[in-house]
Amino acid sequence: MASPSPATDRYTRGREELLGDTGQGGHERRRALAALADRWLTDLLSEAGGDTKGGVRDALSNTGGEGRQAGVALVAVGGYGRRELSPGSDLDVLLLHDGHRDIAALADAVWYPVWDAGTPLDHAVRTPDEARRAAADDLRVHLGLLDARHIAGDDALTAQVRTAALTAWRTGAAKRLPELCASGRERHEQHGELAFLLEPDLKEARGGLRDAAALRAVAASWVADAPHEEVDAARATLLDVRDALHLTTGRSADRLLLQEQDPVARALGLLDADTLLRRVSEAARSLAYASDVTWREVNRVLEARGGTVRRILRGRNGGRGAGPERRPLAEGVVEQGGEAVLAHSAQPARDPGLLLRAAAAAAQAGLPLSRHAVDRLAADCPALPEPWPPAVRESFVALLGAGRSALPVWEALESRRLITRLLPDWERVRCRPQRNAVHRFTVDRHLVETAVQAAALTRRVSRPDLLLVAALLHDVGKGWPGDHSLSGEVIAREAAARMGFPKDDVDVIGTLVRHHLLLVDTATRRDLDDPVTVSSFAEAVGSVETLHLLHALTEADAAATGPAAWSAFRDALCRDLVARASLVLAGRPATAAPPIDTALLRLDGHAEGGFAVTMEPLSYGAEVTVAAPDRVGLMALAAGVLALHRLTVRSAVADTVDGTGITVWTVETEFGSLPDPAALREDVRRALNGGLDVAGKLARREAAYAPRRGTTPAPPRVEVVSGASETATVLEVRAHDGPGLLHRIGTALAEAQVSVRQARVSTHGADAVDAFYVVDGSGLPLEPETARRLAKSLEKALG
Fold first, then answer.
1. Can you say whether the dihedral through the CA atoms of 442, 447, 451, 453 is positive or negative?
2. pLDDT, tens digit, for every residue of 522-550?
3. Where in the chain are the domains?
């Protein structure tokens, strides 16, 4: 390979200096990188014309003006055309020509030095007519040409193509803008919302850099314009973050992964990763809201011209069509042009309740709240009196009860920080990220999503208003240190009192927030047949009404968290606990599960080696029963075999009947279908006879699932849960999940000569929280000191 040309040497040195200059960053560095690339490509084009022979020289020999080659031009398009070059950005370049037959040789003479330098290049070679046809056929090509910027060569060619692209964009706006809106919608569905994700894509997600470019394209159409100041500031923030991401990782990337967030924050001079994500969230929310407002304006203009994008916009904003010119929605609120706007007679300065009344009316009608209305309400509406008047509280509940139609209205209020004005403690959770792989949203969006999910469950409870408010506030304590359920209860009580709820209702909301995790934690980690479990749970809840509210809140919370937070099995356990607690709260004894029916089991073979394995499919997995002559470690052995067959254990109940150890396992498949019962039975037989190395196979599987280099799971923790049972000692194990975890726990307990009566297994992301009801050789709970020693030894064994 030939040595780099002087032009390439200059570019390489200049780029290293720019990227190594810690005093320069942001907008200035991006423009400097673009200017450096411009000089390099200009020199390469000049060198190609001067150093090659034949047709290429002929192509460049006719110059018009100083240094201008006639018939050939290099054009920057896309982000490069906008001078938004991040350290890892591609050079998007178009080589225009007027039909020269040797253009391929010239292109090679320009492109190859770029490739040899390791610079990513997105290139095309076209005549002006070819560029116009490509733009007509491909929306992305057309968008790139809207930002076309001349670099070198014949500037008349560049002007010709740019003018044609802008003219076609404006005359074809009725077709192109709906196409652009539709492509954005598809992209959002694939990549999610940048403002609320834990590992967001800075470019493709809703509210990202691609949306900022789309707003520029809308402005270029002359159909509508976006609010420049907030859009420009948000785009600059996201570009700065992307620059830092490229510099810290050494590669081109748009997705901000967890392990990269702290280094990126440091590169930007921010306190930590949470501060970084909050800044990203703020910028993305501004862009997303500006996009919504702008696309609604596009819709109105195109509809007036006979075209529309309403079918696309309806999916996001819930719009129902322009409707009558001014249709009343509520006092001081009317519908106009597909939005909820303030009536001419509205007087926000004299009507404190107008803010929430307008928001509720818009959400209930499935309409967005107009930007002008939001701005006017923010500027003129006085603070609400405390406690809120009943009508204001009802408006707030109606807003929450509108379900998914409430989301665009909520974001409109957030754009002017009106939610914080209503709920001062909201500021601590606003845009706050959650360091939990189970959660898919920031804290504030999770709270709103929980209210959205709760709105679909209001027919199941006697007090929908209490359910909706508790759903909105259940995690509000995450803005404070310590147990968020305890601090959240204090904040929720204060907020409910400020809203004007009477004391009894404030108490219910406080109880729901304090115990919003109690139902699922009890159902999945405790023995529901133990009388202490149900009675303690019922005592904490207090009433049947609160129990039903808590049940609905638990479902809404799980649905808003993400798919990993709920399953058919957890749903069945929660319903079982609710049914038992309802009986206790009604003064009746809780029902217990029937004893294991040993008559259904037939031990095969002789007594000393006989065993039985049955598998009954369930809607959420299967119930597997393993019976064999009782022995130390039987439960651990069975758990290992289930793990080898890729069955995830959700619960286990153990018993000994006439010398036979019987364990009933509730399992789900990791993926695929249930295993062949005959194969499962054969592996149990081999394990019992010592012919299957369960521990060795699990160790090899677990090694394959080892954490990535650089990540260290938190050490395991084992606690003795006092008072959880009168008939057994309850050990709660928290550890990093893995294929053989349950087998290792069972083996360690067997070595300690304790028997497991029941196990409840829960998995949250990469973490397992398992509860084991254990007894000594006499079938009694362990002595307190023995239990503490066992917990410590189990921690050591798992670590």
1. positive
2. 998 888 888 889 999 999 999 999 999 99
3. 6-133+148-165, 174-315, 348-585, 604-704+712-798
